[in-house]
Amino acid sequence: DAGVTQSPTHLIKTRGQQVTLRCSPKSGHDTVSWYQQALGQGPQFIFQYYEEEERQRGNFPDRFSGHQFPNYSSELNVNALLLGDSALYLCASSFGYNEQFFGPGTRLTVL
Amino acid sequence: DAKTTQPPSMDCAEGRAANLPCNHSTISGNEYVYWYRQIHSQGPQYIIHGLKNNETNEMASLIITEDRKSSTLILPHATLRDTAVYYCIVTGSARQLTFGSGTQLTVLP
């Protein structure tokens, strides 16, 4: 049984560009959450998707948006990239409000 | 969600029990205590969670004090692979995990 998978593993972008990160949840899970982890800090909650809708959102600007597909997979989009958006982006899946299982993350570098 | 306080770092000898403390004095009655760990540059790994009773699984034991203001995660026989940052999180549900700074556990040979 595959766990949570994310793509790509690494990504390099320049300021002002847009980026899309992808996440496939663990089998049987219907809820996807996204987190941002800057170097040396703990993960920070961005938002959570359930039934293809954003259910809850953390303190992140509208440049961060997402989508969940009927097969429960999810995308995270970031527009107008800033240097400060460089981070490890983590996807976590769960069945409803049960414990969340994390993927390996996507390392985004903004130059 | 209640705030948690953890020591920034701890050492443990390989093969010995590792006891990681967490204070959560403002926890409310419907909030759970969750523990995750993160090995360098990997995604966090779920360990265990509890409400008020002690819990045990194949990875660890969670001891919650009777007043619920603190808890201890116990790794019974620490190995080098247990070296990681351990996060104690209090949440009303698992919907929005708020990670603090965690405890860097180093298991020494």
Give the SSE map.
The complex is a heterodimer of chains A (111) and B (109).
Chain A (H helix, E strand, L loop, with lengths): L4 E3 L2 E4 L5 E6 L6 E7 L6 E7 L2 E5 L6 E5 L5 E5 L8 E8 L6 E2 L3 E5 L1
Parallel strand pairs in A: 2-11
Antiparallel strand pairs in A: 1-3, 3-8, 4-5, 4-9, 5-6, 7-8, 9-10, 9-11
Chain B lengths: L8 E5 L4 E6 L8 E7 L6 E6 L4 E2 L4 E4 L5 E6 L8 E8 L11 E6 L1
Parallel strand pairs in B: 1-9
Antiparallel strand pairs in B: 2-7, 3-4, 3-8, 5-6, 6-7, 8-9
Account of the protein in words:
The complex is a heterodimer of chains A (111) and B (109). Chain A is mainly beta. Chain A is 0% helix and 51% strand. Chain A has no helices and eleven strands. Chain A has strands at residues 5-7, 10-13, 19-24, 31-37, 44-50, 53-57, 64-68, 74-78, 87-94, 101-102, 106-110. In chain A, the strands form two sheets. In chain A, strands 2, 4, 5, 6, 9, 10 and 11 form a seven-stranded mixed beta sheet that branches. A four-stranded antiparallel beta sheet of chain A has the order 1-3-8-7, with no helix packed on it. In chain A, a hairpin with a 6-residue loop joins strand 9 (87-94) and strand 10 (101-102). Chain A is globular, with a radius of gyration of 13 Å. Chain A starts with a strand and ends with a strand. By secondary structure, chain B is an all-beta fold. Chain B contains no helices and nine strands. In chain B, the strands form two sheets. Chain B has a five-stranded mixed beta sheet, with no helix packed on it. A four-stranded antiparallel beta sheet of chain B has the order 2-7-6-5, with no helix packed on it. In chain B, strand 3 and strand 4 form a beta hairpin. The radius of gyration of chain B is 13 Å and the shape is globular. The N and C termini of chain B lie far apart (37 Å). The A-B interface holds A 4, 33, 35, 41-45, 48, 55-56, 58, 88, 90, 92, 94, 97-105 and B 34, 41-46, 49, 87, 93-102.
